[in-house]
Amino acid sequence: MTTTPADVESTVKDFLTSIDKLPEGFTADTSLYADGAELDSLETAELSATLEDVLGSDPYSAGEMPETLAQIQAFYAAASA
Amino acid sequence: MTSGTGYEPAAHYDRVTEAWGLLLGDELHYGVFDHGDEALDVATAALTERMVQAARLPDGSADGRPLRVLDIGCGSGAPACAMSEAHGVEVVGITTSAVGVETALARAAARGLAGTVTFEQRDGTANGLPDASFDVAWALESAHLMRDRPALLAEAARVVRPGGRVVLCDLLRFRDIPFAEVRERRDDFATLRAAFGDAHFASLDYYATGLTDLGLEVEVADDLTQATLPTFDRWRANAETHHDAVVALIGEDGHRDFVRSCDILEAFWRDGTFGYGIVAARRPH
To answer: Residue A41: which of B1, B4, B182 has the nearest Cβ?
Structure first.
């Protein structure tokens, strides 16, 4: 199954919404950390687990530390290539 | 900016203050157990006394005026009232919690301290108080709730006069926790967050070095991890004793999270991940 950028976007946005941390005007290039969604390490771990649960894999467990939605989407794009 | 999760210190404190009075005891902080079998109130008073001694409150001021103490993250105001009654100091307590201010003001009024102990809703990382206006900046177990710790230390150092002291006791982190471990143990950390709010721990060296870098001379940097360990037994006992009242205040889930948090923290205390310490530093003349 191919993971589309839209799948990743909806998963990340749903997660940020669930923890009340979806910034106004959120885009693929908005930081997930400082000056953006302001995730801490525990919330990042929870995002990691959510991505794995929903999409079957996640970049954080693969040793990457993406800082934006675009970088997360790039991980899945590379995995599908 | 985001709109928040309810784990921010003020929101969390507003929600749990009354229940914590039953669970943590009147002083709302850890205890220092010199023998291990003391009652919780004796041990929490012993921790306060450690802070008092580190702040040199019994020494008073050189010119005989009352010492002025800034209590950063003053909780319910019990330590502020106690130190004023015991040592004749003037205290300004600050907290971001409106409920905390209300509770503390009522406590001070009930104890006849309204003129000498005051409480205001202010942020410890940007307190807005004048430079060099206090003899002591005191942070009893509040630093872990302030994300911008450099600002906390800088603000505390800024408001103390030459010869004055910054004293701080708090939970400590003794090792870095790798991301893989945070992910693996995320349920434990989430339980701690649910029970105690959005907390972040630093090392004893972090505080000592930070105050040194601000031009202060460190006088005390003590690890109190073992001495505070029995606190968890006392908190669990309180949770059992006051089960129905606590559930009425924070629900069955809140009660369960608190008890589970005691188990998790005790395990972290024992495996050397987290602990407790006190730091005091003096601004030179």
So the answer is: B182
